[in-house]
Design a protein that fits this description.
- Residues 66-146 form the DyP dimeric alpha+beta barrel domain.
- Its cofactor is heme b.
- Belongs to the DyP-type peroxidase family.
- The protein is an alpha+beta fold.
- It folds into two domains: 11-236 and 430-443, no CATH class; 238-427, no CATH class.
- Helices cover 23% and strands 18% of the residues.
- The chain has helices spanning 38-49, 73-78, 83-87, 91-95, 101-104, 135-149, 222-225, 240-250, 254-265, 283-286, 311-315, 368-380, 436-443, and strands spanning 27-35, 66-71, 126-132, 155-164, 229-238, 335-341, 358-365, 403-407, 414-419, 423-433.
- The strands form three sheets. It has a four-stranded antiparallel beta sheet. Strands 6-7-5-10 form a four-stranded antiparallel beta sheet.
- Strand 8 (403-407) and strand 9 form a beta hairpin.
- The longest helix has 15 residues, at 135-149.
Length: 446
């Protein structure tokens, strides 16, 4: 479906990273900075305006590489944003991710006390994301970012995480990623699912009506909030060896291993969705962008094709909740970006090699609480909405070794018990990605 249904997004004012998906293949880097001097902080913002691309579509291949900039609450405070404006931001953004860790299920090994420094600390003020199709263009764009903070003694680079697409083109767990994204009205980006009409622009970009028909609350003054969006960044360590060991212990053959993995994720490793290919992998289907997201769940209410507790179905139930009318799934849709970091664990290896690998998860949306936090707490960490209160997402839920996962099948369902945690949170933060005009406003604060 077209993504230009009447609304006119001010694309020249919106950061490109808010609307454009990452290239494939890709290389990238995430930088976290601290502002120690307010004047240098504003000068950095002024310089960054010149290197941040807008959301206007371009046929120039050079625009496949771009910089996106976000600020934490503490970062905006360090820049000298007036207190009434700071108070107008969403409460969860003001609190920060570490303060909401228990609510998010970041406990135990994933709790902030174990996070990688400086993630989750008040020192994190600015995030700069740089993504590109290849290393040469990445270095060119990264050099622009480096020059922006060069010779500014009041700016400190605290953290850098490099990322790149694995040679397989898949995640560290071995699954094709980045298939399903919603379209946004006015963005010019087409929908990946022809059954899903584009989201109202206000679900992703502030200053436009959202799915409720209302204008979402946004920071004040208007120049600061309009055309901006919230960004969630999380570093997620994946325990690939533990995942493989669990499947090996529960399966009699390699074919059964692949099937159990597909049931847990909701797709085969090559990207073929279970609703379209429930019994066997179909690499041709998985690699066809015209077909690999062209499905719904409504004709599979009990999950015989795709379990209702599978990761992909939990993260986006599509039409599966339409029958009871209690939840409007469109209010919880969001743009998700995922990039891999660390080396892949060679195929067939079952022992952990001690290397850090995983996913940098990025959320983009206008509502941190009812989009990211709702999906994380209500759909991924809990099983009440699918009628299984004791079950969490089998891949990214808050598994503690006691949860289970049900696979409906005839004549008797199968239940996998004692799922260990396969993903550990290494840290993260909530950011606000302002418009280009808002960045100029920040740079010129009195």
């Amino acid at each position: 479906m077209p993504a230009n249904d009447g609304v006119k997004l001010e694309l020249d004012d919106i950061q490109s990273g808010a609307l454009h998906g990452r290239p494939s293949p890709y290389v990238g880097a995430y930088l976290l900075l601290r502002i120690d001097d307010r004047a240098d902080g504003r000068e950095l913002v002024r310089r960054l305006v010149a290197v941040v691309d807008s959301g206007r579509p371009s046929a120039d291949p050079a625009h496949d590489a771009w910089i996106t900039v976000g600020f934490t609450y503490r970062g905006l405070e360090a820049l000298g944003v007036p207190q009434p404006s700071l108070d107008s931001f969403a409460p969860e953004f003001r609190e920060g991710m570490a303060a909401r860790a228990t609510h998010l299920g970041d406990v135990g090994e994933s709790s902030p006390e174990h996070w990688e420094q400086p993630l989750g600390t008040p020192d994190v003020h600015i995030a700069i994301a740089v993504l590109s199709p290849d290393l040469s263009r990445l270095e060119a764009v990264t050099e622009k970012a480096r020059r922006a903070h060069q010779e500014l003694n009041g700016i400190s680079v605290l953290w850098r995480q490099d990322c790149y697409q694995l040679p397989t083109g898949r995640t560290s767990f071995g699954f094709k990623d980045g298939i399903s994204q919603p379209a946004v009205e006015g963005s010019g980006q087409p929908a990946s699912n022809p059954h899903e009409r584009p989201l109202k622009a206000g679900e992703i970009i502030l200053g436009y009506p959202d799915e409720t028909g209302e204008l979402p609350a946004m920071p004040t003054p208007d120049i600061l909030g309009r055309n901006g969006t919230y960004v969630v960044l999380r570093k997620l360590h994946t325990k690939v060896a533990a995942y493989r060991q669990y499947l090996r212990a529960k399966a009699a053959t390699r074919e059964e291993e692949a099937l159990l993995g597909a049931k847990m994720v909701g797709r085969w490793q090559g990207g073929a969705p279970l609703p379209l290919s429930p019994d066997r992998d179909d690499p041709e289907l998985g690699g066809d962008p015209q077909r690999n997201n062209n499905f719904l769940y409504g004709d599979d209410p009990r999950g015989f094709k795709c379990p209702v507790g599978a990761h992909a179905r939990r993260a986006n139930p599509r039409d599966a909740l339409d029958s009871d009318g209690s939840v409007n799934v469109r209010l919880h849709r969001m743009i998700r970006r995922g990039t891999s970091y660390g080396p892949e664990l060679p195929d067939g290896v079952l022992e952990d090699d001690g290397k850090d690998r995983g996913i940098i998860f990025v959320f983009v949306g206008a509502h941190i609480k009812r989009q990211f936090e709702f999906v994380k707490t209500q759909w991924l960490n809990d099983g009440i909405f699918i009628g299984a209160p004791s079950e969490a997402d089998p891949l990214v839920g808050t598994g503690d070794g006691t949860t289970s996962f049900t696979i409906p099948q005839r004549p008797i369902r199968r239940r996998l018990h004692d799922l260990p945690p396969f993903v550990t949170t290494r840290g993260g933060e909530y950011f606000f990605a302002p418009s280009l005009s808002a960045m100029r406003w920040l740079a010129e604060l009195p």
